[in-house]
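tl;dr need the bound structure. longer version: we got a ligand (pyridoxal-5'-phosphate) that a collaborator sent over and nobodys looked at where it sits. i said id run it. heres the input, straight from their email, havent touched it
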Amino acid sequence: MAIRADLAAVPDYNIPRQTPDAVLLNANEMPLPPSPAVVEAIARAAVEGHRYPQWFSDTLVARLAEGLGVPERWIAVGCGSVSLCQQLIQAYCGPGDDIVCAWRSFDAYPVFARVAGVEVRTVPLDAEHRHDLPAMLEAITPATRLVFVCNPNNPTGTAVRTRELHEFLDRVPDNVLVVLDEAYWEFVTSPDVPDGIALALQRQNVAVLRTFSKAYGLAGIRVGYCVAPPAVVAAAHKVSVPFAVSRIAQAAAIAVLDHPSEVRHRIETVVRERERVHARLTRLPLCPGHQVPASHANFLWLPLGDRSTAFADFCARRGVMVRAFPGDGVRITVGLPEENDAFLRAAERCVALAR
Ligand SMILES: *Cc1c(COP(=O)(O)O)cnc(C)c1O
């Protein structure tokens, strides 16, 4: 049996290794397990595991709506926010259409587009590893249906600012949906980085994606959400897999929302460590001009170019898994202090050997 010929051009995912006993700084996960209260909610949901979950996660949607101050019909829940990325592409794009995204950015966007037979127009990040919004605007064609803006950007950790995003949105044609992927929004501390949900509420063509996988520490449970005008939510629902969000995922997300101070504490710990690791890395002669972009997320970006794979392999041999993007750079997730120290020791050793 022949697989669709065009799938040969779809890039394979770069799957993070889950090596036992290694320090895992390669998937942007929260380094601490869910709290006992969340685990208990998961166990309670399992008791009713013989029953299908709510089709549209109504209880979770109501909780999110209340917390975010948006109407319930503005929220769609998905099996991770990646599934919502895919749903939006499926609902808005078909063969002959295209999407625009930055590069490097999240590697799922081009995969989902090509699987749907959709062209991808990638726009290089600027010299500071940030989205080049004016160039992205120019890349929009009459065939463009959707533009992804990953803010903060995975894997570089850079963010677009409120004013430049407004200027961009003012110029994007009304028939193009702008998807603000805010998977790392909870780690942002700069007041100048916009809250996409506030923007979505003011416009017709903006959808925001958020997830419980990163700051909320539920990557293994699979739940995320989209905040967008009701027509966009209806479009995402139209193409969703039936019962894609399990009972367990819905219960875990509600439980984690019930414990905001635990979440806040974890975020603060990660942000503190991010700044400490960043300061240490900027002192190391790893990158040209010691350049390590400031990060707004739970990871740091080392633009090592051709040396990226060698650096990641060197760290792996010392028991620290980081993520290499060959030819571009290495992304290091911020972990617990002792995990970050293990990474810094490996990085310092790498520099010492290179001398
Ligand atoms: C992690 C991530 C997501 C969401 O992942 P899920 O686990 O599917 O919720 C979405 N976008 C970006 C850029 C990410 O890094």
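gonna send this back to them w/ a short note. The chain is about 40% helix and 15% strand.
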